[in-house]
Amino acid sequence: MTDAMQTRTGPIRVVLVDDHRMFRTGVRSELAELTAAGGVAIDVVGEAASVEEAVAIVRDTRPDVVLLDVHLPGGRGRGGTDVLLDCAGLTTEPGPPVRFLALSVSDAADDVISVIRAGARGYVTKTISPRDLLAAIRRVADGDAVFSPRLAGFVLDAFGAAAGEVAEVDEELDRLSAREREVMRLIARGYAYKEVAKELFISVKTVETHVSSVLRKLQLSNRHELTAWAMHRHLL
Fold first, then answer.
1. Distance of alpha carbon 7 from alpha carbon 3, whole angstroms
2. CB 125 within 8 A of CB 81
3. How far is CA 146 from CA 152, 155, 186, in A?
4. Looking at the whole model, is its pTM more than 0.70?
5. Strand order of the sheet with strand 99-104?
6. b/e for 140-171, b at 16 or more Cβ within 10 A?
7. Tens-place pLDDT, residues 19-62
8. In the 8-state DSSP scheme, what is residue 176?
């Protein structure tokens, strides 16, 4: 469990992104009922029905978790993937991380892989029960990755060999120092710079220096590429 979750004193702040208003209303109602019954406290701080609305509300509210439909109008025609790409900076800017959980009727491999490559922390289908959705939201807020059971195989297939299988010699990984590897794993898991600093007992400035070095050595541009790189090697 990350420090962000251990020290949480308020509810998990959530934005609902789906182009069907009745579905958003239903999800909001179910989450409110579970919260009232003593479940994990959820505060829905915004809703959106298109790519443009989603990017605006996420940037404005900076929620803990975004429940993101895969198929949305607007943007560049890629739905939830466009939202993730346009909000990419929110996972690297100072402050608590914004994490995305795809919630879609689609269980197509292409949809799953597209949003995960773009930075989503998980993917569940709309057949999920309200209680399981609540648990998934909490896990994603905590920095975990969450998938509906049959979808996990798509991710493993997309990012490499069977789980736990790592090449004996990895020249790219060997370029990193021990400390850079520690920082890399935490950043790839979605930790904010402040969280990494607290976890490793180093300054935020030192974290920034290590991240810049890691990205340079691995010839990557941002933390989303770093996450995909780490997932491919089963390092998360």
1. 6
2. no
3. 9, 11, 17
4. no
5. 42-48, 12-17, 65-68, 99-104, 122-125, 146-147
6. bbbbbbbbbeebbebbeebbeeeeeeeeeeee
7. 999 999 999 999 999 988 887 899 999 999 999 999 999 999 99
8. S
